[in-house]
Amino acid sequence: MHAPFRAALAALLTLLLSAVALVGATTPAQAADVYRYWAYFTVTDGEFVAQETGPSGAKPADGDVEAYRFAAPADYTQPNLPRADLSEVDFETVCGDKTAESGDKRVAVLLDYGVEEDADGAEVPEPEALCAVVPAKANGLQTLEAVAPDLRTQKSSFGPLVCGISGYPETGCADEKVAEGTPADAGTVEFAVASDETGDESGEAGESGSSDSSDTSAASESDEGSNALLLAGIAVLVVLVVAGGVLLNRRRTTA
């Protein structure tokens, strides 16, 4: 091949490659669709780690912390993290006052329902931290259901998808496209931690209240019974007095 021809061919190839690179640089990349959905996390070494599999494919151990966050991340590969401060909301904080019998386990479950921008006009529940006491063999989905009975799921090729937790949101299952993603949150928010003490106090108060109510009712019935006996006694006494007066009056008349 002659040198002039090789030089011309090399120049042509260079021009074509430059044109391809220029077109690639100037053509905007197609933006990925954005959807709202519940993302599933576990806590490892004090940090949230997004899970690629759903909770039905996971098996938390006793002492684990699991978390869920509802949002519409701009990048589906980087879901928005739950806004809990893990230095304050940890396993001991959530499950420290719970006990598990033989064959059971305790798992802390953090639920972050997201922000108003993702609520589509609905009222956003407050973030909460709950302790699930479940059988040792329970998977992540069963663990979640133990603390959030009103759970909506949908079948998929990857296993059950979590669509709604504690009734939120009421409809949809990661299938509602939105115009833009929810910005990642820089700060943390307070998580309401459920405690057995509150429940016990409520229960004791309820039992006490019920007992007081029963006592009051019983006392009232007792008082009514006593009053009835008193009235009956007075009536008998009046009858005896009247009868005695009549008898005495007859004796005087006869005399």
Automatic annotation (TrEMBL):
It comes from the Bacteria. InterPro entries: SCO2322-like. The keyword Signal applies. Residues 196-222 are annotated as: Disordered. Residues 1-31 form the signal peptide. Residues 205-222 have a biased composition (Low complexity). This is LPXTG cell wall anchor domain-containing protein. Keywords: Membrane, Signal, Transmembrane, Transmembrane helix. The chain crosses the membrane at residues 228-248.
